[in-house]
Amino acid sequence: MSLETIKVIAIIASSIAAFVTLIFTIISIRRNIKVTGLQIFQNTYSDLQRLSEKVYFEFIETDNLSESNRRKFENWKSLFFNALEYSAFLLNNGFVTKEIYEFYKPTFFIYYEDIFLVCATEEQKSEDLYFQEMKVLYKRLKEPLRGD
Prior knowledge:
Structural class: mainly alpha
Strand content: under 5%
Oligomer: single chain
Number of helices: 5
Distance between the termini: 70 Å
Order of helices and strands: HHHHH
Radius of gyration: 25 Å
Largest sheet: none
Number of strands: 0
């Protein structure tokens, strides 16, 4: 083999190796993005569960809505609605896998219909300025149900 042939083979081999490395890098980055999205969503979901338990045990089970507890309840609503809004943002913008999205749908309906629609002010429910991501997700999830 001539020196020129060896150089061409070396260039082709290094190009193939670089291409394979690039493919593995892309796959790794995509997996890392999915794992990060799952971790963020898991943290948000844990916050929602913790907050829903808190409202049950502190306010609903005890039926204890004194004036100071009303202020605590308002604070709880703010924390809960913001966590729900953030989870809706993650779902709306593809930060979680389709499997997590499908898994979370029934829970989101419960949180939205049984907590948000019951506890939110009329202004929060009607104004687009408040909790846009939640409202968009709810409408999107509700659409297939109307066609059934």
